[in-house]
Each structure stands twice: as structure tokens, then as C-alpha cells.
């Protein structure tokens, strides 16, 4: 998952890169920091919704598989892929296929997931202005 900074934490989004002095083979005592600006703006509201959905999915999967987050079987529920599908039936079938090795009932999870993604937008790289 990608880290998203909210507008409350940083009024001006900044990216810092650590660099070392050219030709130096030893570590400098304090790293030199060059400041860069994030130039591409994303729809923060949509990103927040997506992040909340991903956190909810992880919580549900830990319950379904009855394990810690690190022990969840390797599966990827791609929300954008689900949004590309023509119907909820297709989406539900895809999620059920992904959960084929889950022994707990997953119907409630699938139904709630489909309700949560309804109306969401695909995340695509926004165009630079």
C-alpha cells in the first residue's frame, strides 16, 4: 500500500531525496537533502476512499482467514479490475474465485465489498496541467 499524506499533516506536499557528495566514498555525517515538489495532483478524496477500502479489505481478510495480516495467503483484490467488469455478478464471481481457499463463509464479505466499490472511480494517473 502506498502512503498518503493528508492535507492536515502537510500544507505543502514535499518529497525529499538524500544525496551524498560526489566522489565521496564515506558516509557524510549529516545527509544532504534536496527538496523536490510533488507535481502531479491526485483526487485526495478518492485516494482516501481507496485507502479506507484497502484497510477494510485487509481487516476482513484477516478475519476470513483467521490469521495475522502477514499470514494472509497471497491474493490481490484489484479494485480497478473489478470496476472494469460489466456487472456485480461478474465482480462477485471474481472475488469468490480469489477466495477459493478460504474455508469460512465469504458471501457477506463479497456483498459488502460490492456495496463499497459501487460508485467508486478507477484510479488512473492524472494528466499534468
UniProtKB/TrEMBL annotation:
- Bias (Polar residues): 1-23
Query: Where does the signal peptide begin and end?
Result: none
- One Pfam annotation reads PP1_inhibitor
Q: Name one GO molecular function term.
A: protein serine/threonine phosphatase inhibitor activity
Alphabetized Gene3D superfamilies for the sequence: CPI-17
Pull one GO CC term from this UniProt entry: cytoplasm
Q: Name one GO biological process term.
A: innate immune response
For this UniProt record, the keywords arranged alphabetically read as follows: Acetylation, Phosphoprotein, Protein phosphatase inhibitor
Its domain of life reads Eukaryota
Under PANTHER family, the record lists:
PROTEIN PHOSPHATASE 1 INHIBITOR POTENTIATED BY PROTEIN KINASE C, PROTEIN PHOSPHATASE 1 REGULATORY SUBUNIT 14B
Q: Which family does it belong to?
A: Belongs to the PP1 inhibitor family.
What is this protein identified as? Answer: Protein phosphatase 1 regulatory subunit 14B
Q: Which organism is it from?
A: Esox lucius
Amino acid at each position: 500500500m502506498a502512503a498518503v499524506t493528508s492535507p492536515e499533516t502537510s500544507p505543502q506536499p514535499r518529497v525529499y531525496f538524500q544525496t551524498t557528495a560526489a566522489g565521496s566514498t564515506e558516509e557524510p555525517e549529516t545527509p544532504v537533502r534536496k527538496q523536490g515538489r510533488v507535481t502531479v495532483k491526485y483526487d485526495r478524496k478518492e485516494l482516501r476512499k481507496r485507502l479506507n477500502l484497502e484497510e477494510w479489505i485487509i481487516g476482513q481478510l484477516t478475519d476470513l482467514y483467521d490469521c495475522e495480516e502477514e499470514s494472509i495467503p497471497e491474493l490481490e483484490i484489484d479494485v480497478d479490475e473489478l470496476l472494469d467488469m460489466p456487472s456485480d455478478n461478474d465482480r462477485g464471481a471474481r472475488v469468490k474465485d480469489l477466495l477459493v481457499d478460504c474455508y469460512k463463509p465469504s458471501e457477506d464479505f463479497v456483498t459488502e465489498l460490492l456495496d463499497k466499490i459501487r460508485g467508486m472511480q478507477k484510479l488512473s494517473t492524472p494528466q499534468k496541467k
